[in-house]
Amino acid sequence: MSNKMVVNFTSWIKSAAGISITISILVAVFAAINSGPYLIVNTVVTGGMLALVATGLTLMLGVLNIAMFAHGEFFMIGSLTAYYVFTPISEFISENPESFVAVIGPLIAIVCAAIMGAISGVVAEKLVFGPLRKRSTDNWVMNSFLLTVGLSVLLVNLHQLIFGADFKGIVGYWSGMPISIADVFISRDRAMAFVISVVIVAMFWFFMTYTRTGMSIRAVSQDITGAQIVGIDIEKIVLLTISLACALSAVAGGSLLFMYPSYPTVGLEPLYLAWFVVILSGLGNILGAVAGAFMVALLKAITVEYIGAGWDFVIPSALIMLVLIFKPSGIFGSDVRGALDK
Amino acid sequence: MDTTTAHQQMNPFDKLLDKLCLTPAGLLGLILLFALPYIPPFNQEYMLRWLIYCGFIAAMSVGFDLTAGYISIVNFGYAAVSGFGGYTSALLVINLGLSPWIAMAAGGMTAGVLGLMIGMISLRLRGIFAACLSWFFGLAIMGLATKMVWLTRGPSGLRTPRLFETDSNVPFYFLIIILLYLIYLACKWVVRSKMGLAFQAIGQNMDAARTSGINPVYYRVFNFTMSCAIAGVLGGYYAHFYGILTPDIMHTGKTVEVLAIAYIGGRGSLWGGAVIAFPFIFIMEIIRSSLSNLPGLNLIIYALVLILVMIYYPGGFSYFYDTNIRKVKNKALRYFFNGRA
Prior knowledge:
The complex is a heterodimer of chains A (342) and B (341). Chain A has 342 residues and is mainly α. Chain A has helices at residues 2-14, 16-35, 38-64, 71-95, 101-135, 140-163, 188-210, 212-222, 224-229, 234-255, 268-281, 286-306, 314-326; strands at residues 179-181, 184-186. In chain A, strands 1-2 form a two-stranded antiparallel sheet. In chain A, helix 3 (38-64) packs antiparallel against helix 10 (234-255), helix 4 (71-95) crosses helix 10 (234-255) and helix 8 crosses helix 10. The longest helix of chain A has 35 residues, at 101-135. Chain B is mainly alpha-helical and 341 residues long. In chain B, helix 6 (100-121) packs antiparallel against helix 12 (216-242), helix 13 crosses helix 14 and helix 14 (271-290) packs antiparallel against helix 15. Chain B starts with a helix and ends with a helix. Chain A binds chain B through residues 67, 128, 131-132, 135-136, 139, 141-143, 145-147, 149-154, 156-158, 160-161, 165, 264, 268, 272, 275-276, 279, 308, 310-311, 313-314, 317-318, 320-321, 324-325, 328, 340-342, and chain B through 72, 74, 121, 124-129, 131-133, 135-137, 139-140, 142-144, 146-147, 252-253, 256, 259-260, 263, 294-297, 299-300, 302-304, 306-307, 310-312, 314.
């Protein structure tokens, strides 16, 4: 029994997933020793949020076969909603700082962001993707991809037209002393952002693995016709998936408002990074996307630390291109070629 | 249709038109474009600047359509490749003192080499993966152009000498129209030959194409190289027209602009994007300048048109033209829209 486990473990270590995870852990440890643990804190916080955006993206890819280019815009919608919800709340808090609103208020803003993201996802499905799905069957992946490109331009410029192009940011969600863990000071906002992302990813994983609805989402992602035969309502699953994916992205936007103030093109950076994650970890693989998110975050943090700010697109994109060339299915992906190849 | 007898009966004018890949309507349009700088509302300098931008996007969309419409790969880093050609050209002029004309050709060549590289490394990939790869490639090049400040002066912009030493925009306008036509002609000749057939076969079903003896490696790489070389020459033109070059020319937004025009014009037609760019971009510029208190309105209309076309009329303008306008009953009009071929 234990022998079998050892064999399994060694074969996992030899696989692409094992090698890359081991290397990234080693690199993380080395970087932490070399330049201080704050690097790990940064990695973990951005990685957690990136995991939310990337799981949404990978969900869209796996279930709906939509290569989403507008996912960053839902991040923007989330941060915008959180800003407009939290501004009156923060005024209230500054008047009576002792009330329970100081603890609950930010959570309300983030929940509103999630709800708004889900609603806008449903609206996008009803107005944009639904009509296309009814009308076109061939070349769906490419057509829907171009459609999301249009959607992205539309949302960015609507933001600019209605709310203006200036930065809409807040000082912070939770005031108070930073938490100190082993000589590292972590601001409460960052700690809470990490906690939120962990809770949501865990809940999401539980939902996808153990509930009936989650199972039917996975069934649809594996085989639409088969899922229809066993009586799954495709329409409903599609709507649910799109709203979930957009809500995940909006939550990330809402809870990172203290780091990324809301402005029209705020979504571009999370979008690029989430695409890096998705290509790195293979399409439609949720747990892989979580692991990939931390790897990309680590890569970004290390590039900024050792090479300099501004190189954080050059180095990661070069590495991701290498992954695409040598292992097009991603490091956690299987070699099955699906609809996305067309 | 018996094409051989039709070819024998053609008079020299029709034969010439056929060689030049134009219909009588197309010829008239081209003459109109050449006359445009002398027609009253368009002879002002700021209008000419807009028209030059229209011509630039039109020519880009022709080159873009060669990849997107024929081998069905969306080159999402197209603007970055074009910017790469532009930077090469500008740096050659500034540092080596070359003439801008030679530098433009050199920019086209280096961009072609870049296209060769993208084509080679994206060979194993299809559809969305190839689009992603070219996108990441574009992001990396843009990052490099932004960060290599010692060479490109980064976001503050590189001052470049202009092609003609006049303040007038007219020679630039004629040049971009000639470039647009030459690019169209080159693409059309390639597409009309056996190679175009191979492109379409690869674009529609790669495995079937491979089974029938087409080597996708050669055709795909050739297509990428040619389309990127076109982008490079145009990037050089852009650099030597505006006189200032920033990494913004490589932004994904620029690719989206070209992509939208190519798709609204109709994919796989080559001329669709070129025709639609002039009225469309011109109207967008009018909206942008006259409603400057509503920033972004022109891009909203842009995006809405793209979305509506993608959903309800995926064939774009060229499909509309082919199905409705070309099929008129009147014989003279039919000749006018179709030519003799």
